[in-house]
Amino acid sequence: MEFKALGPIEVVNDRLVYTPSAPKVKQVLALLVMRTNQIVRLESIIDELWGDHAPRTAVTTAQTYIYQLRKDFVVELGEELGERFIVTTPPGYVLSVPEDSLDIRVFEQLADRAHACTAVGDAEGTARWAKAALQVWRGAPLADVPCGRVLQDYVSNLEEKRVSTQELYVRAAMNLERYRDLITDLRSLVMEYPFNEWLHAQLVLALNKAGRRVDALHAYQKVRTLLRDELGLDPSHDLQHAQQEVLRSSP
Questions:
Q1: Confidence (pTM)
Q2: Which fold would CATH assign to domain 178-251?
């Protein structure tokens, strides 16, 4: 059994894939997944679902969503599996599953290994574990879930961890002089994070180190124009330093 939240939320059992159809039931499942093996208070569920505008029937309705989720588990995954996962534990509920059945935990464990390798100067290990961590992602966290303010905090935190892991991978790969391999990854990253000047700087440097000096200068001019037109800013020190390194290099 696997619970996937790095992308559209899914519960996978062998080849069976279950995703709640009702948006608020999907929200409840997402909240339980994000706090796996911890008590999710009923108040937290209500806060996620309605924020400051909870109806008078909020408690009963939230309990109904839990009931619906349990019922769906039984129907979709079988009675034995369906009844044992969501445990009522006052003052709330617990999704009780092994940590390694969640893609979130797998990502975090792999990213932790990458950070540990960085701490001891192991660039090869950093690149390997960081890449493995990033491959766990299927898309934006909870991509198909209408997130309230509680879930949005979790999503933002995961996105920050992803960016940190991407930077680890890029630094390690640059140290290992894997410039050609990095170019495709960096082009994708600067499209995803168009105002991350550090990533643009790494793309400029990687292109230059791979012998593509003209492409490197073009990449610099492209981000320089973007920053000027969209934000009214000059390139950062990292970007200017990258450009100077390209200009100093031999054609």
A1: 0.90
A2: 1.25.40
